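Hello Y.,

Per our agreement to keep a running log of every chain we model this quarter, I'm adding this entry. I've kept the format consistent with earlier entries: sequence first, then predicted structure.
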Amino acid sequence: MTDFYYEGYLKGKKVKGSIQAPDKTSALKKLKEEGIIPTSISPKRDILSVQLFTRKPSTDEIAFSLMQIYTLLKNGLPLTKVLELVSSQVENQLLSSVLLKIKSDVESGKNLSEAFKESKVFPDFLPVMLQSASTGENLEFVFEISADFMFKISQIKSKIISSLIYPSVIISFSVISVFVAVEFVVPKIVAVLENFGKEPPLITKMMLYFSKVLKILFYLSPLIVLLFIFKNKLIKKIHYDKLLLSIPVLGKIILYFNLSRFSKILSMTLSQTHRYNNP
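Predicted structure for the entry above:
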C-alpha cells in the first residue's frame, strides 16, 4: 500500500489529506466513493519534489493525452470520466493534476473551453476550437485534430533540433578554441614581439580586441539571462514582438512562421464543425 497525498473539493469546500491505496487509480476510486473531487494526487513521499521541481509536459505528452481523450469520447464515455481516466494514465504529474482540475471545473458548471484556457498547459488554440464546437457530437474531433496538429509540430521541432545539433557543437568548440587561443596563446606571442621591439600584426590586435569583447559578454551573461527571464515585466509584449519582427532575416522568419500557424489553426477551427456533417 502506498500513501497518496491529495487536494480536492468536498461539497464545494476545498479539502486535502492522504489516503492509502495500491496505486493511483485505486486512490482516485476511493476518493470518488467518498464524494471527493480531487484536483491533484501524488505519492506522499514525492510531494515536496513535485511541488518544487514539476516538469512541464512536452508537446508529445500533451498530444498523446488529447488523442486519448478523443479515443475515449469516441467510444461513448462521458467527458468527466474520460478526463479522470486520462489523468490516471499520464506520467507527468503536472498534466495529471491539470486534467483533474479541468474535470472538477466542468463538474462545477464551468465551460469546457474556459477550463482548458485557465490550465495554461494546453495550446492557446484548443480553447478557441472547443468554444467553436457548438454540439457535443463533434467535440471529440476537436481533440483529434488538435492532437494531430501537435504531433506534426513535435516532429518538425525534432527535425530542426537534430539538424542544429552538429553545427551548434562545431560552433561552440570553435568559439572555445578561439577564446583559449586569444586568452592564453596570443598574449605570449605579443609579449615576445614586444621584447623584440616589433608591433603585433593587425590580425593579432583584432583577436585581442575580440577576446576583450568575449570577456565583457561573459561577465554580463547573468544580467542578460535575468533580463530575458523578466522581459515581460520590463517591456510590454507588443513592444518586444515589434522588436523581434524588426530584426533582419530573423524577423521575416518569425512573421512567416506565425502567419503559417495562424492559417493552419483557422483552417482547423473552420473545418472541424463541418468535417463530419457530410456523409
